[in-house]
Structure formats: C-alpha cells, structure tokens
Amino acid sequence: MDWTAHVDGYCERLAPGLWGEPLNDLTNLAFLLAAGLVWWRGGRVLGGLIGLIFVASSVFHLVATRWAAVADSSAIAVFLLYYAAMFPRAFFGVPLRWSWLAAPGFAVLTAAIAALGGGLYLPALVGLAAFAVALGVMRDRYWTHFAVAGAVFALSLAFRSIDSVVCGDFSVGTHILWHLLNAVVLYVVSNAMIAKTAPSPEGERAGSAD
C-alpha cells in the first residue's frame, strides 16, 4: 500500500495540495478551543488528547494522504479508548485495575459493529447512549451530559454522512459541521468527567480522570 497516496474523501477538496480544504482546516480550530477549555478546567490528559485530535485532523486535511488519514482516526481512537477506560472509575468508583478493561471491551464492540457495516463511529454513539442510560438508572445527574452529547454526535454523524451528497448544491460540503459539533461533544463529555471527579464539599470523589 502506498501510504503517501492522495485521499480525496471530502466535498471541499478539488485537487491535491496543502490548502485544498481551507474550511475543513479552519474548523479544526474548534478542537483546539475545546482542548484549551478542558485543560483550563483541570483535565490535563483529556485536554492533551483533544489537542492530539486537533493536530492529527489538521495535518490530514492539509496533506490528504493515507498515512495522515490513519493518524487522524488513531488520535480519535486513543481518546475514545482512554475515556472508556476511565468512565467506570470516574462515575462508578471501579478500581483502575478493573476499569481499564472497558477499553478493550469498547475495541471489541467497535470491531464487531464495523464488521457488520456500521462504520467506525457508530460505536461511539452507542457508547454515549449506554453511558446516558447507565447513569440515568443510577440517578446520576450527569446522565444529561451524555444524552446531550449523544444527540449532538448523532447530528454530527449525519452531517458527515451527507458530505458527498450535498456537493452539487453546497460546494464546501458538510464536513465542517462534523468538526464543529464533535468539538462540542468532546468538551461536554470531558467536562462531565472533570466535574464528576472534582472534590466536592461532601468529600465525594469517585476517581480521577487524569
């Protein structure tokens, strides 16, 4: 496989070149903003991982090559696996020696859904819904954060899916909305974990996100 081969996967890109997707690149700044806000809130690891998504996505939309596409997907996967591993610890107080098992569990779910034709991002939507339901059953007030994040991500995924369909009527496509809405999702779920694990007046602390 030629890892340097050109990837033309988005409506906005008309030809190879570093500035072939200016709006897709500019909207990546939403990830940088989300990373900065999360870092400022105290989520050092989460903020760093969102920052990694910003870098990888920016590079991909600049150079549009296969290796950059893999780097882009890998950065997202790292965030998802880390969050999956920390979720049981942060929200249910599961010891880290058991909590981390959620990461390979999520990886298996992703592989299974992808094999069934569900793509690589549908598992994230399933995970957000599962988190919302689990917290709702436990009457944890943070369930609303995941319900909102799930709704926003569903909309984001829809915009990503129709990018090539709308090219005839909307030349820049809708991938820019995928970036903007995903930045919101990343901030909402990161903020929920940071708030949940912060020391409270009652001394409750389920675990640490970092």
Shape: globular
Computed over alpha carbons, the radius of gyration is 18 Å
Portion in beta strands: under 5%
Extended strand count: 0
Mean pLDDT, rounded to whole units?
Answer: 91
Unreliable sequence segments:
202-208
Main sheet overview: none
- The CA-CA distance between the termini, in Å, is 38 Å
Order of helices and strands: HHHHHHHHH
Helix content: 55-70%
Query: How would you classify the helix and strand content by structural class?
Result: mainly alpha
Count of DSSP helices?
9
Protein name: Ceramidase
Transmembrane segments: 29-55, 105-135, 142-161, 176-195
Keywords: Membrane, Transmembrane, Transmembrane helix
Can you walk me through this structure?
The chain has 210 residues and is an all-alpha fold. It has a domain at 78-197. 67% of the residues lie in helices and 0% in strands. The protein contains nine helices and no strands. The chain has helices at residues 22-26, 29-40, 44-63, 66-92, 96-99, 102-115, 122-137, 143-161, 175-197. The longest helix has 27 residues, at 66-92. It is globular. The N and C termini lie far apart (38 Å).
Q: What's the arrangement of secondary structure elements?
A:
Layout (H helix, E strand, L loop, with lengths): L21 H5 L2 H12 L3 H20 L2 H27 L3 H4 L2 H14 L6 H16 L5 H19 L13 H23 L13
Helix pairs in contact: 2-3, 2-9, 3-4, 4-6, 4-9, 6-7, 7-8, 8-9
Protein name: Ceramidase
Keywords: Membrane, Transmembrane, Transmembrane helix
Organism: Amycolatopsis jiangsuensis
